[in-house]
Design a protein that fits this description.
This protein is of the alpha/beta class. The chain is built from 6 helices and 4 strands; from the N terminus they run βααβαββααα. Helix 5 crosses helix 6.
């Protein structure tokens, strides 16, 4: 979904991506082990602390969703998940996709093999979409993290067949996380 931003990741030079932790990011074991025992390098950068009041244990929720997406794709993986606000995602979307508006999730593939990709999420947009769909912010966040990570593993939704395969993968991930299928009831 666009090219990798300069400066080490979507958070820019203030938040180095490979191996870096930002203030507020918790150091916990990767929850990928709850699935197949594969190791995943999943860092969560909490840029907007309001995520904590929107989603209890938000860092753990993001890590579990990312790990489940890597498991679904059948790969070990590395990603940095940036939990930020609409203004930061709007800036990134404008700089890297030419769309000057916030979006729910952006994925940036790694610059070099073996380096982590990046996924950035906008709290305001995620909150609004969850409310409009009658879902919890936690479930919607989980879905969008999984969606972003699936992009990093090669999934896309530009054509109908690709979109359907990606939706099915997302539904399996959500089932693995014991969360509702985001595509049930969607025409």
């Amino acid at each position: 979904m666009g090219s990798r931003p300069p400066g080490g990741g979507p958070a820019g030079p203030n938040h180095p991506v490979p191996g870096g932790h930002a203030a507020g990011a918790e150091d916990e074991e990767s929850p990928g082990e709850f699935l197949s025992g594969w190791e995943h390098d999943i860092d969560v950068v909490l840029e907007d602390p309001a995520w904590r009041s929107a989603v209890p244990r938000v860092e753990e929720v993001a890590r579990r969703a990312a790990a489940a997406a890597f498991e679904e794709a059948g790969v070990e993986g590395a990603v940095t998940v940036l939990l930020t606000g609409d203004l930061q995602v709007k800036r990134l979307n404008g700089e890297h996709r030419g769309k000057v508006k916030p979006t729910n999730v952006l994925s940036f593939p790694p610059l070099h093999p073996g380096m982590p990709g990046d996924v950035a999420l906008a709290l305001g947009t995620v909150r609004r979409e969850a409310r409009a769909a009658g879902r919890s912010v936690m479930a919607h966040l989980s879905h969008l993290v999984a969606h972003g990570v699936l992009h990093l593993t090669g999934h896309d939704h530009l054509r109908a067949g690709e979109a359907r395969r990606m939706e099915r993968a997302e539904a399996r991930i959500m089932r693995r996380l014991a969360l509702p299928n985001p595509w049930r009831g969607v025409a």
